[in-house]
Each structure stands twice: as structure tokens, then as C-alpha cells.
Write a structure and sequence with these properties.
Number of domains: 2
Shape: globular
Protein name: Polysaccharide deacetylase family protein
Distance between the termini: 54 Å
Number of strands: 20
Bound molecules: zinc ion
Subcellular location: Secreted
CATH topology of the largest domain: TIM Barrel
CATH architecture of the largest domain: Alpha-Beta Barrel
Helix content: 25-40%
EC number: 3.-.-.-
Structural class: alpha/beta
Region (Disordered): 426-445
Radius of gyration: 25 Å
Keywords: Hydrolase, Signal
Strand content: 15-25%
Oligomer: single chain
């Protein structure tokens, strides 16, 4: 019931925006690289040096610095970006829904963050960065989980612990210790011992319709309503878990300007929406973007893990985390260098497939003619014209024998490494070298 509740809010407030934003994304062609910045250590080292009493060497250095000032800490622009991921419920055996993500996919996503060498930060680090007391690596990820479902403890927590990732729970008062599928205080406390931070997600998780009803009751009534949702949820969590609460996730992302004033009064520093986008140092704290990772739309995680190029690093392609119910080649999310691969699907585990019903569609080619292996279970097509896009999307549809309708189609994507296919014999004149594949080595010693 709560899941539906949340999902409906989400659709009402932002789903179309989200779709529009997704459609507007184009896939960058640059190869995935990453940067593990050591700016923090540097900033600390520099700050410590700045406080130490001056020696003769130091004053010589100071003169040298005045001539060639160190640029690292004095860089005016903070180019770090944080991708905030928003999860809800997890499942091992139920079908995926928008709000319910299969645990194996969650594990793959966590692995992808590791493979991409992104830094997973805690809520406290996020807040410190936002208020200017901490530098972050160029590309960080903040993992948040809304509502307080028990499956967070039973399914996601073991994986988060294994990867040693900090994470944030946005809890609403009425569901804490709600029994059934809700998290208990003890579970929350245990998770707080192992990387969990907490923020508020209101008292009652109101629908936008409930919020609007309160607006209609007049300024005073609306103000009292917001006071409870923002104030009581905060004091409840602070008393129960002995932690200061400075963040809020709008239920369903729904917010009005009146909420900003109340939030500031109550002492909230950062409030999160459900509109996708990266957070920068200067992003408006009252309406911070967040990628809600839907169990049914793999492209959102891909967008969430794609970062634009900066002065210090090249753009990174997002991680494609998919799973297919039958074996396929090239496998979902894999990177290939052969631009004319054979695409295949193996239906051997399916007893009653109608071999004549199988249809494969390949992006840029449409419906393609399939070859069928003698056992009539492996279907394939060899690409007959070099793939030109950085990714290739496949859809396969089929019917079971004696069935009138098609099964739910299977979709997957693989990545085409076009750079690997072009190996120029003579190097073209390159723009000023940027060594995109190496990390800056700034010693912390
Ligand atoms: Zn929620």
C-alpha cells in the first residue's frame, strides 16, 4: 500500500518531467574514465601548513609562492559533481516494479559504482561539501533510500555493508516501527552502526492531494500542517536516534515555496526532490536533484552514472546494468570492439517456444532476418553493416506454442567501443594532451 502510495506521488509530480529529461539526454561517445581526486588530503595538508609557525624555509617558500602561487586550493571553481541515487524497496523473488528493485540488479549497480571508481560519500560528507568545509572528488555518489522498508535491512544492507558504502535512510515518522514490511528502530540503529545516516521524509508521507487540500484551508492551517510534517518528523528522529537531522526528502518530490521557509526555520540544510540531475556545489539546497532508480527503467542508473567532461577529466559513459532472462550475445552491458558482431539469443531453457514467432529488432536496422540453429532454439543475426552508434539496443519478441499473444519482450543493450576499432597508423595532431586515463598523483605524504 505504501509502495503504491509513493509510486503514485512520484508519477503525479515528476514522471513526465523525468521522461522528458531522459529523452533529452544524448549518449556521449567518450570512453569511460574516472578520477579519484586527492584534493581533500591536499586541502588538509595545505591548511595544516598554513597554521604551522613559519621557519626560514617556509618564508623562502612563501616568497616563491607569492611569485608562483599554488593553484590547487585557490582554484575558484568547485567542479565536483554528486549523483544522488534514490531507492525504495528491494526484492529477491517478486517481479520488479518502479519502486521495487531486484536485489541482484542492486548488487550489479553497486559493483558498477566500484568499477567506475566513483566515491560513495556519506550524508555528512555531502553536507560538509555543500557548506564549504570539505572538498570532494570530482565524481561522487550519494546513496539514499526512502520510506523505511524492511527489505532495506534484509536485502540491501548486506550488500551495502559488503561494499562498505555509506548510505542514507529518509524515514517518515508514521512508518518507523510500523510492523509488517516496515523497518524497526532496532534495524535502523544497527544500520546506523554500519554506515547509515538518516534524514526526514515527513510525518505522514502526504499525497500531493493532501498537501493541496491543506493549502485550500488557508495560510494558517497550511502553515500548521507543514510545521507538523517538517518539525515533528525532525524532532521524532532526533529524539529516537540521537542524531541531528538536517536533510529532508520531499515525499514524491512534491514541494511548494512555503515549504522552503518552514524548512529553513526548522534547521534543514538540504532538501531533495525526485528530478534527475547532478548536484554541484552551487545547486539550490531547497530543491536538490536526485535520480530515482526505478526497478523497471535501467536507463536511469545509466544516466545517473554518466558524468560530463570537466577541465580535469573526460566524460564518462554511464553504467548499463541489465539482466536478460535468457542467455544473449553480446551480453547486456558488455563492451565489444568488433563492429560487426553476431547477435544471438539462446532459448534452450524454454520448452514450448514457437520458433517461427521469434522477432529480433536491432537499433538502426529494425527487424532483422534470423538464422535458426538446428535445434531450433538459438536465434542469431550477424550485423551486416558496421555499427555506428556507441550503444546498440536489441529487442526480442516471441510466442509460446499454442499461445495467442506474445510474451513480454526481452530488451538489452551492449556498448560498442569505437575507439578500439579505429587505430590510426599516424597520430593526428592532437589538442594539448590531457592524459585522460591516468589519475593525478598528488602525494599526501
Ligand atoms: Zn516516499
Amino acid at each position: 500500500m505504501h509502495s503504491k502510495h509513493c509510486s503514485q506521488n512520484f508519477k503525479l509530480s515528476s514522471y513526465q518531467d523525468l521522461q522528458a529529461t531522459l529523452a533529452a539526454y544524448s549518449r556521449p561517445i567518450l570512453k569511460t574514465t574516472s578520477l579519484l581526486a586527492t584534493l581533500l588530503t591536499c586541502a588538509l595538508t595545505w591548511a595544516l601548513q598554513a597554521q604551522a609557525p613559519l621557519t626560514a624555509d617556509d618564508s623562502q617558500k612563501a616568497v616563491a609562492d607569492a611569485v608562483n602561487p599554488p593553484t590547487l586550493v585557490q582554484t575558484t571553481k568547485d567542479t565536483s559533481l554528486v549523483s544522488v541515487l534514490g531507492y525504495h524497496e528491494f526484492t529477491e523473488d517478486q517481479e520488479a516494479t518502479e519502486m521495487r528493485l531486484p536485489t541482484d540488479k542492486f548488487r550489479k549497480q553497486m559493483q558498477a559504482l566500484k568499477d567506475l571508481k566513483y566515491t560513495v560519500i556519506s550524508l555528512e560528507e555531502f553536507l560538509a561539501w555543500k557548506n564549504g568545509t570539505l572538498k570532494l572528488p570530482e565524481r561522487s555518489v550519494l546513496i539514499t533510500i526512502d520510506d523505511g522498508w524492511k527489505s532495506v535491512y534484509t536485502h540491501a544492507f548486506p550488500i551495502l555493508k559488503e561494499f562498505e558504502y555509506p548510505f542514507t535512510l529518509f524515514l517518515y515518522k508514521n512508518y518507523v516501527d510500523g510492523g509488517g514490511k516496515a523497518l524497526s528502530s532496532d534495524m535502523i540503529k544497527e544500520m546506523m552502526q554500519h554506515g547509515a545516516s538518516i534524514g526526514s521524509h515527513s510525518v505522514s508521507h502526504p499525497y500531493p492531494s493532501t498537501v493541496k487540500k491543506n493549502i485550500k484551508l488557508g495560510t494558517e492551517a497550511y502553515s500548521a500542517f507543514l510545521n507538523t510534517e517538517f518539525g515533528e518528523s525532525k524532532s521524532f528522529l532526533e529524539d529516537k536516534f540521537d542524531k541531528s537531522i538536517e536533510t529532508y526528502a520531499y515525499p514524491g518530490g512534491f514541494h511548494t515555496p512555503e515549504m522552503f521557509d518552514i524548512a529553513k526555520q526548522k534547521g534543514y540544510a538540504c532538501l531533495f526532490t525526485v528530478l534527475p540531475g547532478k548536484v554541484s556545489k552551487t545547486s539550490e539546497n531547497m530543491t536538490l536533484p536526485r535520480y530515482i532508480i526505478l526497478g523497471t527503467h535501467d536507463s536511469i542508473f545509466e544516466n545517473a552514472t554518466r558524468f560530463p567532461a570537466t577541465a580535469n577529466s573526460t566524460a564518462s559513459l554511464g553504467a548499463i546494468v541489465q539482466s536478460t532472462p535468457f542467455p544473449v550475445t553480446p551480453t547486456a552491458g558488455s563492451t565489444i570492439s568488433n563492429r560487426m558482431p553476431t547477435i544471438s539469443v539462446d532459448f534452450s531453457s524454454l520448452d514450448n517456444i514457437d520458433p517461427d514467432s521469434v522477432v529480433m529488432r536491432v537499433s538502426g536496422f529494425g527487424k532483422v532476418p534470423l538464422s535458426i540453429q538446428p535445434n531450433r532454439k538459438i536465434f542469431s543475426w550477424k550485423v551486416n553493416r558496421r555499427l555506428r552508434k556507441p550503444t546498440c539496443d536489441i529487442t526480442v519478441s516471441w510466442k509460446l506454442l499454442d499461445a495467442d499473444t506474445y510474451e513480454k519482450p526481452m530488451r538489452w543493450t551492449f556498448i560498442v567501443d569505437r575507439n578500439a576499432a579505429y587505430i590510426p597508423t599516424t597520430a593526428p595532431s592532437l589538442p594539448k594532451a590531457k592524459t585522460p586515463d591516468t589519475e593525478p598523483t598528488i602525494s599526501s605524504e
